[in-house]
Design a protein that fits this description.
Length: 181
């Protein structure tokens, strides 16, 4: 059997994305930037061109990390901030936001180490992620940044999936369709 794929063209590169069933009704084209140094390298400057004036870059683990790293390099920022999905033993006085998700019943959190939260306070923040889809993840990250006292001035991703392409409050390079069965 030949696996179905979706041909994505973004930032001058082409990728055949495997189409994966999420449930009986919905399939996604799986877009994984972890390990794809070329897509990250080529997308970062295109996103930077579209960003407003910012002071800091924030992402959430895990798939946004390489992109946030490259965007930071492009902007000459020596630092960016990664929200974690669990409190680590090495975190000092973490700032924690409970996350509501319709896709899981387990309670989820996003958190910053206190020193990262302090660095974000009062700053203009760009949220960086690989894909914005339902918007839940980027919204949870925005809430954590707000809790830390930062001002979110941009929400940017390489791809906007499904209805996210209709949003006027996000920055993205290309659309990614959803597939119904
Ligand atoms: N199409 C997709 N591929 C990988 N991760 C995703 N997260 C949301 N949509 C995705």
């Amino acid at each position: 059997m030949t696996k179905e794929t979706y041909t994505l063209q973004v930032a001058g590169v082409t990728r055949e994305l495997p189409i994966i069933a999420l449930n009986d009704a919905l399939c996604i084209a799986s877009f994984v930037i972890l390990g794809d140094a070329e897509i990250v390298k080529k997308s970062a400057p295109l996103l930077v061109e579209r960003l407003p004036e910012i002071d800091v870059i924030v992402t959430a683990e895990a798939k946004g990390i390489p992109l946030a790293h490259e965007v930071a390099n492009e902007l000459g920022f020596g630092t960016y901030y990664v929200a974690r999905k669990s409190v680590k033993a090495y975190m000092d006085s973490p700032v924690i936001k409970k996350v509501n998700s319709i896709t899981t019943t387990d309670e989820q959190i996003l958190c910053f180490d206190a020193k990262d939260a302090a660095a974000i306070k009062g700053k203009r923040v760009a949220l960086i992620d690989d894909v914005i889809s339902t918007g839940e993840s980027i919204e949870a990250l925005a809430q954590l940044v707000a809790l830390a006292g930062g001002e979110v001035v941009a929400k940017a991703a390489i791809l906007a999936e499904g209805d996210a392409k209709l949003r006027e409050d996000i920055i993205f390079l290309e659309e990614l369709p959803l597939f119904t069965k």
